[in-house]
Amino acid sequence: MLALIMALAVSASEVHVLSADTVFANGRAYRLYRIDAPQSAPRAECALESERAAALATFVNQVISSAHSVEVEPGFDPRGHKSWPNDRYGVRLARISVDGRDLGDLVVARGYAFRWDNHNRRNWCLPQP
């Protein structure tokens, strides 16, 4: 069976930032695909992680609110499953582009998050290099 992956193009005003790495668009939550980001409360393991998540959420909100268009493309699970996946919290993973730029790349380039590494879990409570 052939699966067609379609991107959802939405106006930036229709996208709402829910947390550091999760947005709400078209009636559902989407989490940034292939990044490791700090968690906000109550999932944060320390105050520093929560602060880092808040800074990331502010950045994402600024990028999206100043954008003309946002594109959401559900992605394949980085763990190798061949379906549109959800993360461990049940949120759909997706590539999100803002005015043609990959949002995951932007947050990694700015140091707010790191590329997903299935073998190592980052400790956001330690000072980052």
Attribute tags:
OB fold (Dihydrolipoamide Acetyltransferase, E2P), alpha+beta, 20% helix, 28% strand, disordered N terminus, 129 residues
Could you describe the 3D structure shown?
With 129 residues, the chain is of the alpha+beta class. The chain has a single domain (8-115), classed as OB fold (Dihydrolipoamide Acetyltransferase, E2P), CATH 2.40.50. The chain has two helices and nine strands; from the N terminus they run E-E-E-E-E-H-E-E-E-H-E. It has helices at residues 47-65, 103-109; strands at 8-11, 16-19, 22-25, 28-32, 35-36, 69-74, 92-98, 101-102, 114-115. The strands form two sheets. Strands 1, 2, 3, 4, 6, 7 and 8 form a seven-stranded mixed sheet that branches. A two-stranded antiparallel sheet has the order 5-9. The N and C termini lie far apart (46 Å).
Write the layout of secondary structure elements.
Elements: E1 8-11, E2 16-19, E3 22-25, E4 28-32, E5 35-36, H1 47-65, E6 69-74, E7 92-98, E8 101-102, H2 103-109, E9 114-115
The topology string of helices and strands comes to EEEEEHEEEHE
Strand fraction equals 25-35%
Q: What is the structural class? A: alpha+beta
Largest sheet data: 7 strands, mixed
Principal-axes geometry comes out as: globular
